[in-house]
Amino acid sequence: MIKITLPDNSVREFESGTTGLQIAKAISNRLAKDVLAITVNGSVWDLNRPITEDAHIQLHTWEDREGKETFWHSSAHLMAEAIESFYPGTKFGIGPTVDTGFYYDIDLPEGKQLSDKDLDKIEKKMIELARQKNEIARTDISKDEALKLFTDKNDELKLELISELEDGTITLYNQGSFTDLCRGPHLPNTSYIKAVKLTSIAGAYWRGDEKNKMLTRVYGVTFPKQKLLEEYLVLLEEAKKRDHRKIGKEMELFTFSQEVGQGLPMWLPKGAMLRQQLEDFLKKVQKKFGYEQVITPHIGDINLYKTSGHYAKYGADSFQTIKTPAEGEEYMLKPMNCPHHCELYKFKPRSYKDLPVRMAEFGTVYRYEQSGELHGLTRVRGFTQDDAHIYCRPDQLKDEFKKVIDIIFIIFKALNFEDYTAQISLRDPEKPEKYIGSSENWDKAEQAIIEACEEKGLNTVTELGEAAFYGPKLDFMIKDALGRSWQLGTIQVDYNLPERFKLEYIGADDNRHRPVMIHRAPFGSMERFVAVLIEHTAGKFPLWLTPDQVVILPISEKYNEYAENLSSFLNNSDIRSLIDDRNEKIGRKIRDNELKRIPYLLIVGEKEAETGCVSVRKQGEGDQGTMTKEAFSEFIAKEVKEQLASFYN
């Protein structure tokens, strides 16, 4: 008999060799129908894999991340089986899960290619195969056997992967006529998969390397119920409407140019105004919390990043170095701001009385992303971080960390992000080589984050292996209006860069001490944050933030002069307004400007021009009546003031 410890710490005995599915049946028949995977002593397993020793377990359903990942990874294999049935000789690269389903990178036989019109037949084949209820069986295999199997299949992609694996760690999964190299875990059989949608086809370099062959990447999503797929398709349609690239173009916020370069966004006047409002907002908050603004160059000597450790970790993913006419002199486009700020800290001697020092910068950084990975504003090669670094004494660390949490909450409140998870990202204890610094300092940094979160009453999840290479962090994962998860806001504790840059302060004991460093970026990057904000709000920004607060619509050209005088009055009152003086009917102007998501529309004609009034329409609410221009100005100013005051207090 073996002892199985459940999540509530209760212990039950089972015969050695029992499976997760048998444990689920012993608990309840309902659970046995819903369970998809099991975690055994920290590792996710197939439900049919025998457990032969005492274990702590957790059963996973569709509601759990582990359950969805197991479901979707099995679906990737099902899709591969369907593709192979139509295109024998296809070579299969990797088929991982993603946040919204899965993909598989494939190399089709010579002369064959997939198009969107082929997806329907593959979907139907997947459903046909799923209904066969084929067992998904796991098999341990030696390295030599694996090499022979995929040599016989002439699949050099799998052979490359196998060459990097250790003998004794290799497993295959088989279902029906399809066999694949895979670690798992997988569903017990294919019948769990009830609904399928293949969403898109793209090109992808093998293993993400532009020097390698271009493969075909097929994306898909599956569900255990048809109703869930139908709900997802509605959500997908709404997501298309909210796509920040589409709305950004409609609202004239930003653009890209191949002549300027891939992944390098340019902000149009309205987008620049939006960014400026966000920056001004955060600067006011930071000033209240004692931050000082700094500015650093867009490039830095390569040795700066060698000292920080960034070059060793990320040099291969950065832009190539810039050589100067001087022999041996090399610079890099700035990939991060923190080394520059460390040098600013060293500008003068520091006393314990000077700490904490809080430096903030909207610093633009540059990181090379492969062209296939670029996506609107969410994945770019040049972006601006709302970066700040706090240098404090160890006894100040927890309080400073909690104050940063307060700043992030102010931002979430101001922009209506109400659904979030606080994720404590720690070291992977199995891979110490991924990190720099002493274990002692890591222990102190991790403990400070855990205690700060407890004292702030945060509901947190802990993820091992998600820490930065120089320190643990707290990441805020928000859900937008469509329920999609985004990482926004990060706070990192770092004992290592102060050590590498030999940062010091003179303590009360007149001895030299190292400060602790906190990295923080509440927005993360301005580009990505704006993208998320656009999709969260569908471009309907709060009044204080929106680039155009008011549009004036003269009924005919006879009232253009009054509209211009009105616009001048509003702009002088710090109300951002513009005029639509096109020779169009007023109904067309109203419709067009509502599509531009401008909060207030002012209609002016003969009566308004004579009385100095405006007829007010509000986005989404319709006619608001007539008021004097002075009263309207006060009304807008009051609304903006009340919004901002509630955030700052």
Distance between the termini: 60 Å
Q: Order of strands across the widest beta sheet?
A: 16-20-21-28-25-24-22-23
Question: Strand percentage, roughly?
Answer: 25-35%
Total beta strand runs: 33
The poorly predicted ranges are none
**Per the principal axes of the C-alpha atoms, what is the gross shape?**
globular
The total count of helices amounts to 20
Broad structural category: alpha+beta
Mean pLDDT: 92
Q: For the CA atoms, what is the radius of gyration?
A: 29 Å
Helix content: 25-40%
- Note the main sheet: 8 strands, mixed
Keyword list:
alpha+beta; 649 residues; globular; five-stranded mixed sheet; single chain; 33 strands
Please characterize this protein's 3D structure.
The model has no long low-confidence stretch (mean pLDDT 92). The strands form 8 sheets. The protein has an 8-stranded mixed sheet with strand order 16-20-21-28-25-24-22-23, sandwiched between helices. It has a 5-stranded mixed sheet with strand order 2-1-5-3-4. 36% of the residues lie in helices and 26% in strands. The protein is built from 20 helices and 33 strands.
Secondary structure: elements and pairs:
Layout: E1 2-5, E2 11-14, H1 20-27, H2 29-34, E3 37-40, E4 43-45, E5 55-60, H3 65-86, E6 91-92, E7 97-98, E8 101-107, H4 119-130, E9 137-140, H5 143-152, H6 156-163, E10 171-175, E11 178-181, E12 195-205, E13 214-223, H7 226-242, H8 244-250, E14 254-255, E15 266-267, H9 269-288, E16 292-293, E17 299-301, H10 302-308, H11 310-314, E18 322-323, E19 330-333, H12 338-345, E20 357-366, E21 382-392, H13 397-414, E22 419-426, H14 439-455, E23 460-464, E24 473-479, E25 485-494, H15 496-500, E26 505-506, E27 512-513, E28 516-521, H16 526-537, E29 550-554, H17 560-572, E30 577-579, H18 586-595, E31 600-604, H19 606-611, E32 613-618, E33 622-628, H20 629-648
Parallel strand pairs: 1-5, 16-20, 22-23, 29-30, 29-31
Antiparallel strand pairs: 1-2, 3-4, 3-5, 6-8, 7-8, 8-13, 9-10, 10-11, 12-13, 14-15, 17-19, 18-19, 20-21, 21-28, 22-24, 24-25, 25-28, 26-27, 31-32, 32-33
